[in-house]
Design a protein that fits this description.
126 residues; mainly alpha; 57% helix
Amino acid sequence: MIRPDAPVRSDSFRPVLGAAVLLAFALLAIAGLKSNRDLQAARAHESMLKAKIAATRAESERLQVRIDRLRHDPGMLERLAREDLGMVHPRDVVIELPDPKAAPAPPVATPPPAAQAVPAANPQEP
């Protein structure tokens, strides 16, 4: 039973509800965009880390092969001793050449020949 003298209610709640829904959708869209950006950054970081892991594994394998060769290949040890340490085998003939980068030594001046050699006086003789 509706009373005829009751005030008529206006629909003022509807625009406020619409604005609240639009605000909620805008906040969800912004949060979604930020999440997508963060996800893309995390994926890029993950792929960079995977590349570093692969490079580290490859370097580790290379070093492991070198260690194995150093332990079991006497020819490699001899080559490294010759190249890095400058060692030679007792039967080897060593020929040293002058360094082409080094400046040549200045010529040594020779004293003029003495006319006659004079014996030095012995201070202990009487």
